[in-house]
Amino acid sequence: MKIRRVLSIIALLSAGFAAPHAAAAQTGGPSAAGSYQFALADGRTKYVEFDARSQSSGGGATGQMFFSDEAEVSEQDVDGAGGPLETHRGFYLRADFDGLVVVNNQAVMSGTVRDSSITGLIGQRVLLTVEDNGDNSRLPDRLTWGVYANTARTWETSDAELERDEGVGTRWVATDAERRDDAGVEMPSLDSIDAETYPLAAFTLVDAAQWSGDLRVQS
């Protein structure tokens, strides 16, 4: 069985609203930007800074993300026993964005890790999802992110009872029939994770215990 390694961490934060990054505000189109220093229940300091802007041509996005974390993290073998393969006492990563989806006050950004203190992360995909709740201390901004390994698909699904399955290579959209607002997920899933792989409703946003900084989403 092919062994695939993924990073077994998800960082989550919330923060108060403040002034946006000027670069994002000047695009005139969908954008998201922010910088935060925060801590979760573990009390370890984390920092994230990002700036994503949709391209004027309408194709993809540009921007960068930096993230650092003092907490201990582990890489895991999800195809095997699931035990930790390697533990790191803190790490950082830098990523270049290539995708951005904005819906109302939420945005999801996708990109590729270009540099990291954990070399196994370089080349993997990043999703950063944010929610801008404005200047509201009772309902703070929120965010979640994850690092994903790309999958190299070398097979196709087909009906073994048919000599020639006409459905091979076709794609479809799976939706929740009980929800009119469900945008659906394209199937089979994309080989490379991007900003449209999962609907915004699929992300769980969790508040941080402590935070300082700002988030801004512009539709």
Overall number of strands: 12
Helix-strand string: EEHEEEEEEEEEE
Low-confidence stretches: 1-27
Taken from the alpha-carbon principal axes, the silhouette is: globular
* Proportion in β-strands: over 45%
Rounded to the nearest angstrom, the radius of gyration is 19 Å
Q: Oligomeric state of the chains?
A: single chain
Summing up helix and strand content along with how strands pair, one would put the structural category as mainly beta
Domains (count)? 1
Biggest sheet character: 10 strands, antiparallel
Indicate the percent of residues in helices: under 10%
Individual helix count? 1
Mean pLDDT score: 76
Beginning-to-end CA distance, first to last residue = 44 Å
Q: How is this structure best described in words?
A:
This protein has one domain (5-153, 193-218). By secondary structure, it is an all-beta fold. The protein contains one helix and twelve strands. The strands form two sheets. Strands 1, 2, 3, 4, 5, 6, 7, 8, 9 and 12 form a ten-stranded antiparallel beta sheet that branches. A two-stranded antiparallel ribbon has the order 10-11. The longest helix is centred in the N-terminal third of the chain and has 4 residues, at 22-25.
Q: What would the keywords be for this entry?
A:
single chain, 219 residues, mainly beta, 10-stranded antiparallel sheet, two-stranded antiparallel sheet, 1 helix, 12 strands, disordered N terminus
